[in-house]
Structure formats: C-alpha cells, structure tokens
Amino acid sequence: MFDVFGSVRGLLKLDAVCIDNNVFRLHYKATVIILIAFSLLVTSRQYIGDPIDCIVDEIPLNVMDTYCWIYSTFTIPDRVGRIGQDVVQPGVASHVEGADEVKYHKYYQWVCFTLFFQAILFYIPRYLWKTWEGGRIKMLMLDLNGPVVTDPNKVERSKLLVEYFRSNLYSQNFYAYRFFFCEVLNFINVVGQIYFMDFFLDGEFSTYGADVVRFTEMEPEERNDPMSRVFPKVTKCTFHKYGASGSVQKFDGLCVLPLNIVNEKIYVFLWFWFIILSILSGLSLLYRAAVVAGPKLRLILLRARSRLSPQSQVQVIAQKFQIGDWFVLYQLGKNIDPLVYKQLVHDLALRLEGKENV
C-alpha cells in the first residue's frame, strides 16, 4: 500500500510561507491528495485484482473480459428480488430486448482518469493565486519568521516594512481582490464538480450519499442497496460472433466487477467530502464579503492577529488602510514572529500618525 501512495508524499509537506487560509488549503492540498490517491488505488491490481472477470461458454475468458471492458456491461434495474432464488444478483436476470429497461455501465473505464482530472481542476485556483501572488509575502517576511533575530536586524527590517507600506499605500487592492477571486473559483469549482460527477454517474451522485445513509437505517427485508444499483458487482454482457454457417450467434455472459467494491466506497466518501467542502467554501465567501464590506470586522480581525500590540495603534492602522493594505498586513501576521509583528504595528502606527520619522 505504501508503494501505491508513495508518489503523493510530496504533496503532504506544509509550505514555509502561508499565502492563503485553511479552507483554501482544503481545496488544493487535502482534496488534490485524496483524488490522486483514489486514482492510484483504482489502478492497483495487486489490491483489487482484475477489474473485470466474465464467464460465458465457448468464448475464451480473456477475449470476453476485454470485449466487455471495452464495450460496457449492463443490468436490468427492474429485476430485483431474493438473491439466489428470484435473481442471480440485483439487476441480473433474463430480459426481453425492447421491452425491459436496460442500463449500461460504461463509467468504470474512466474513473481513474476522471479522478485525476478533478484533482487538476482543484489545483487551478491555487496555481493562479501563486502566479499572481508572485512571492510578495515571502519577500516581505525578510527572514522575520524565526524568534532568533538580532535586535538591530529586527529594527532595520521593521523599518523596511514600514517604508514598503508607506510607499504602496492604497495601491494593493488589486492584489487582495485577486485572492478573493480565487476563493470564488474554489466555490464554483467544488459545486460544479458535484454536478459533473452527477452527470458522470447518470444522475445518481447528487443523492448517492443520502441514499446510502437511508439504506443503513432500513429494515433488512426492505433494503435496496443504492451502492449495488450505482456500482453493481455482477452485470451482464452480450457477445456476438459468426457461427460455422455464417449466422450471427449471441452469447450472454455474467461479469464480476471487483473494482466496484472500491468505487462504491470512493464515491460515498467523495459525496460527503464535497458537500462539506462546498458548505465551508460558501461560509468562507460570506466571511470574505463581510470583510470587504465591513471596516469594523477588519479592525476586530487585525486586533486578534496583533494581540500583543496596543489597541489604539491597531485602530489607527485599520482606519488608514484600505482592504488591500489590510490584507497584506494580515497575511504577514501569519508568517512573522509575534514580537516582530508587534514592533511593525508600533512603527507603522507612528508613521501613519506622522509622529516619528522612521
């Protein structure tokens, strides 16, 4: 198992410089790791075995397996009953062509590719923000993120930061709005992917997790397993070939899909994960809208970030700063040492009040 997931270890490392927030990291780090890990899992035959095994008389098994994998299998959704008595498996029974509803299952060839594609989509907002951010916060940190910094260096670097904010005052709004735009992209992406997976699974994903929870609460005799309906483990496959006289012969086979044992669990987890992530992203957008529209909220947040500084100095900064200046200062507070940040707030407040020429 370690060999399978070893390739995603590099994604687990934390960045030395924080340029976003926890909800943002759930998108480009946690979700990307989950999707790539699942993509690798569904391609690992040593844990799942062959993705499909079909049984049919007079046709070589390897030929039948390849044919049914390429051209899909099917079930009869209306044929349910007691396994071994009424039907072989739910959805697996004799049927009349043109009279019975037939549901074809083609998705299983594309699960690994789809999961990987989804991981790429989740990383795009992060890529855009990292490109637009351009290493600004890392540059402004000036190695002040460690507690071991000599006093002359602290004072000199704090002066450089104060000068940066003075010379760039009111000119950093675009920087902040780019980050806010990436947060909106995160929300649009996760909601859009819920609809995408619903389309991928023929309209079954939107209620899949809720159906599974409801299934576990039903009485045994009333149960109709939604996981078996969406991800059947046994299906049918029809093979046609020419007979000795040149007539077309039809062969019905049974196919076992061990891969769906994994797929059904993957998509149950993804249903809950995407619902939770979309809710958190929506709340994050509401919080961001309140930050943009509410100077008082920005003051409260800056006070919480610079809790070692006098509140009067924080209030001076909050009154003078626009959203972009506030955002850069707030992001710096996540990365530099609290004592250095206290000095920065002190020097910055004095400079904004014009009381000291630093």
Structure description:
The chain is mainly alpha-helical and 358 residues long. The chain is 59% helix and 8% strand. The chain contains 15 helices and five strands. Strands 1-5-4 form a three-stranded antiparallel β-sheet, with helices on one face. Strands 2-3 form a two-stranded antiparallel sheet. α7 (151-167) packs across α15 (338-353). It is elongated, with a radius of gyration of 29 Å. The chain starts with a helix and ends in a 5-residue tail after the last helix. The relative contact order is 0.14. The mean pLDDT is 84.
In round numbers, the mean pLDDT is 84
Order of helices and strands: HHHEHEEHHHHHHEEHHHHH
Percent in strands? 5-15%
Would you tell me the structural class of the helices and strands? Answer: mainly alpha
Task: Please give the alpha-carbon distance between the first and last residues.
Answer: 58 Å
Shape category: elongated
Low-confidence stretches: none
Number of helices: 15
Count of β-strands:
5
Helix content: 55-70%
For the biggest sheet, the summary is:
3 strands, antiparallel
| Largest sheet: spatial strand order | 1-5-4
Radius of gyration over C-alpha positions, nearest whole angstrom? 29 Å
